[in-house]
Write a structure and sequence with these properties.
heterodimer; A: globular; B: 6 helices
Amino acid sequence: MDNFTPISATIGGIMIGLSAVWLMASAGRIAGISGILGGALKGTSGDKLWGWTFLTGLLLGPLAVALFRPDFLKAEFPVTGPLLILGGVCVGVGTQFGNGCTSGHGVCGNARLSMRSFIATITFMATGIATVFLVRHGAGL
Amino acid sequence: MKVAFSTFIAGLLFGAGLTLSQMVNPDKVISFLDVAGNWDPSLGFVMASALTVTFVGYKFVLKKPAPFFDTKFRLPTRKDIDLPLILGAALFGIGWGLAGLCPGPALSSLSFAGVNSFIFVAAMLVSILAVRTIRSK
């Protein structure tokens, strides 16, 4: 547990929550990134402009933090190449069939006490933990 | 136009929150999922605090007749637990555990994390488009 950062994690989580509440209060939309992305790429025209501006903000978010704390712009990739591509495919296909990801199900859906989101969250947490276990501690992998 | 600007602000806040909580760092995410290794529970704090704020905020917001800049709240209505939900969530978890990225942090990381971020997002976007194209036929 030498990398435990509860304070920045909690502040970041509060910001994510405030964003989800603001998106619902102002635009009446669920802050589910995979759904917003799917709608922006291939949805009805009403899904498009608000989705693209949200995604633009999402992309610029790290740069806003970097104005004050450039040390937070850190991303180390445990896998590269084919495994990284495989990861992207699983996330893309999985979120479209499962109708959501960590944000849509994990935050917004669970906040609405949706049983679908609860089941989805338990499922992706379980397979995520199992995958890391196999890759890091599994024999010969 | 007001809607588009308000969702831009929401996106900016979301991306900043992902950055501050280090969800944009795949290594940090993997350390959270690695319960049998050198476990880092930080991301549990991210999810718990985000969920708490959203739960309380939605209670107030959804009492109103409509959002500020649109005519109605658009909420998912489905309640059925079906196979695509479970298999889709399972597959998403596998990808999350493999690469350490979920869709939001993946997109945010494009602005600073270099070529690996682009590779992951390209694979994810192509897959989303493929699924949506096949399903709309």
